[in-house]
Structure formats: structure tokens, C-alpha cells
Amino acid sequence: MEAANWHSPPRLNAAHAKVTRGDEVPHFNDPEHWRQRAKEARALAEQMLEPAAKEAMMVVAASYEKVARRAEERIREQRKQ
Question: Does any domain span residue 61?
């Protein structure tokens, strides 16, 4: 079995390469999308027994909440224009 090369960047297909702006991804500016991801991450954290893994998943949830707040800020900024 070949060892994984963790130093190589992942290869992206053409669909990934085309996504360069937030408005090209429907959920990018949707705070509820990110809040749902946060909720899912918290639910996973509750199921985890390993404290370090649980803490890491809670950090993921907090990061999703931060992305949701930023999406709300983008929406407010767009409405002002």
C-alpha cells in the first residue's frame, strides 16, 4: 500500500476551479446554512467521548457561527448599496 503524501495539495476538478466568488455558491451568503452546519457540529461533539475531539468539534461549530455572522454582515452591506 502506498503511503499518503500529506504535503501535496489536493487536486481540484473543473467544478472546484470555477468557484472563485461568493455569489457563485448559493449557500455562501446564507447564514442559516452555516448555522445548520454549526448545529450539526455541536451534535457530533455531544456524541464524542474523547475530550480533545469534542473540543475540536466545538471549535468547528464556533467557526461556522462566525461564518454565519459574516454572511449576515455581507447581506446588510449589500442592502445598503
Answer: yes
